[in-house]
Write a structure and sequence with these properties.
alpha+beta; two-stranded antiparallel sheet; 2 strands
């Protein structure tokens, strides 16, 4: 993973309005540059009196970089983290469904039907 900082561009292009149904139009230039199509999911973050719209894919990629950086900084290898998953899943399951549910026999997982 690269430790170089990406250049962050803050650019004011235009203003937009909120429609009757709460819809906001993202200027065409930004949609094209960011590769956003109709229906692209966004996270809406409130920052004081302002809003930040962050494409979900970008948010996911940022989260992945942070997790990767944190794990690397702690000296953890991917295999070590993966090895902890079965126990962690068991704890989460027990917390959500109770200890008695965790003693039930495992359900058989079916393969999806192919068309």
């Amino acid at each position: 993973m690269s430790t170089e900082c990406e250049e962050i561009v803050l650019e004011y292009l235009t203003t937009t309005v909120i429609g009757e149904k709460g819809q906001v139009t993202v200027p065409k230039r930004f949609r094209e540059e960011l590769g956003l199509d109709a229906g692209a999911p966004f996270a809406v973050l409130r920052l004081g009196e302002g809003l930040i719209l962050l494409p979900q894919q970008q948010r996911f990629e940022q989260l992945c970089r942070r997790v990767s950086s944190t794990l690397a900084g702690a000296g953890l290898e991917p295999e070590a983290v993966l090895a902890t998953l079965p126990e962690a899943r068991g704890r989460v399951f027990a917390r959500h469904y109770g200890r008695t549910a965790s003693k039930r026999p495992a359900r058989q997982h079916r393969e999806p039907r192919r068309s």
